[in-house]
């Protein structure tokens, strides 16, 4: 079907005006959005630190050697967390260990001698008691026989008196009187013999008692001497073990190793050498150094910052936020120090905040519109060109 040329031209004119209008609308919307962002939007401005690292703010505890010796092995690393009682450094203690073993053997020998002396004293005491028991029984038997002899002698003298009275009246033969006198004499001799025997037994008991008293004093003296020797040996052993403990240095408190010297096996260390510093648990702070030209007048207490840690890639571990707590008014070695308090806010909670850990710090110092930022950059460029 044939379309007239003039109708075709009118149709093209209509389509062209509609597309142009649509393009203008899109352009004006984009320009409006850009101007809104450029003049009303806000961009955060950060000042980066020249260097920064974590520090545990606590009173450092120096670790010094109380003995001298060769290094066997060290268990120290800067930033390592330690618990009370953990082994930090081991020195060669072979010589002192031999001395400890010898002193222990000496103490054990003295203890065996003491126990042997006590056993001998108990045995001697038991023997003495048995001896006294035998002598006591013997003395009792002699006393019984003596009493019996005295009774018989008294009876004999009574009979002799009756015989002598009867013989004086002519009622009893003289020969019987003589026999009675002889019997009384014999009985008196028995009494005297038994009395001497009793005295001898008593003397033996007294001598045995005296001998035992002397033996007890001697045993007590030897036991006291051995006890003193053993106490001296144990004191010497305690000193040696204390010295031996000095060759194995343990942590006296929980903390973090702040700094340490290089420790190689076989290295000789003198008494009093400070080989490490232990930082007890304390507050973790970030000590950052800034260029004064960028930081002075711009960084203030209370500003927020972002921490990143080179040892922990931020794409994987994230970052942490921090808050400025102190701004130094002094410039040292061309840098200004700022102290920040790291927080648990951020995606880097898995990062262990250990002493000495290096990090990067960016402190938010301002929020301005992109147009203001452009003008500020332009002004700096023009100032630079003018110079």
Descriptive terms for the model:
6 helices; four-stranded antiparallel beta sheet; Elongation Factor Tu (Ef-tu), domain 3; alpha+beta; 15 strands; 387 residues; 54% helix; OB fold (Dihydrolipoamide Acetyltransferase, E2P); seven-stranded antiparallel beta sheet; Helix Hairpins
Can you describe this structure?
The mean pLDDT is 82. The protein contains 6 helices and 15 strands. The longest helix has 75 residues, at 94-168. With 387 residues, the chain is an alpha+beta fold. The chain is rod-shaped, with a radius of gyration of 57 Å. The strands form 3 sheets. The chain has a 7-stranded antiparallel sheet. Helix content is 54%, strand content 24%. It has 3 domains: 38-57 and 282-386, Efflux pump adaptor protein, beta barrel domain (Elongation Factor Tu (Ef-tu), domain 3), CATH 2.40.30; 61-91 and 248-277, RNA polymerase II/Efflux pump adaptor protein, barrel-sandwich hybrid domain (OB fold (Dihydrolipoamide Acetyltransferase, E2P)), CATH 2.40.50; 95-246, Helix Hairpins (Orthogonal Bundle), CATH 1.10.287.
């Amino acid at each position: 079907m044939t379309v007239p040329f003039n109708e075709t031209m009118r149709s093209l004119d209509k389509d062209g005006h509609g597309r142009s209008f649509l393009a203008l609308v899109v352009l004006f919307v984009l320009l409006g959005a850009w101007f809104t962002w450029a003049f009303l939007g806000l961009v955060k401005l950060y000042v980066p630190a020249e260097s920064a690292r974590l520090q545990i703010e606590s009173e450092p505890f120096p670790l010094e050697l109380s003995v001298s010796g060769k290094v066997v092995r060290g268990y120290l690393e800067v930033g390592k967390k330690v618990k009370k009682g953990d082994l930090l450094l081991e020195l060669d203690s072979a010589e002192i260990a031999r001395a400890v073993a010898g002193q222990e053997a000496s103490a054990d020998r003295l203890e065996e001698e003491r126990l042997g002396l006590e056993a001998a004293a108990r045995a001697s005491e038991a023997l003495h008691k048995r001896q006294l028991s035998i002598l006591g029984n013997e003395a009792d038997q002699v006393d019984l026989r003596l009493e019996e002899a005295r009774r018989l002698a008294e009876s004999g003298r009574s009979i002799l008196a009756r015989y002598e009275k009867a013989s004086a009246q002519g009622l009893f033969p003289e020969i019987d009187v003589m026999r009675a006198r002889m019997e009384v004499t014999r009985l008196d001799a028995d009494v005297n013999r038994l009395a001497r025997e009793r005295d001898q037994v008593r003397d033996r008991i007294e001598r045995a008692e005296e001998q035992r008293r002397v033996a007890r004093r001697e045993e007590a003296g030897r036991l006291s001497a051995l006890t003193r020797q053993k106490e001296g040996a144990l004191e010497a052993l305690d000193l040696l073990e204390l010295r031996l403990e000095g060759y194995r240095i343990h942590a006296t408190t929980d903390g973090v190793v702040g700094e340490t010297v290089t420790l190689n096996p076989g290295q000789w260390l003198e008494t009093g050498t400070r080989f490490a510093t232990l930082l007890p648990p304390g507050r973790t702070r970030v000590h950052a150094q800034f260029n004064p030209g960028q930081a002075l007048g711009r960084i203030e207490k209370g500003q927020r910052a972002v921490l990143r840690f080179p040892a922990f890639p931020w794409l994987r571990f994230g970052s942490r936020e921090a808050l400025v707590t102190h701004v130094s008014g002094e410039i040292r070695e061309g840098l200004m120090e700022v102290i920040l308090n790291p927080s648990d806010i951020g995606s880097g909670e898995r990062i262990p905040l250990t002493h000495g850990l290096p990090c990067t710090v960016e402190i938010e110092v301002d929020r301005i519109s992109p147009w203001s930022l452009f003008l500020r950059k332009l002004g700096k460029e023009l100032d630079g060109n003018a110079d």
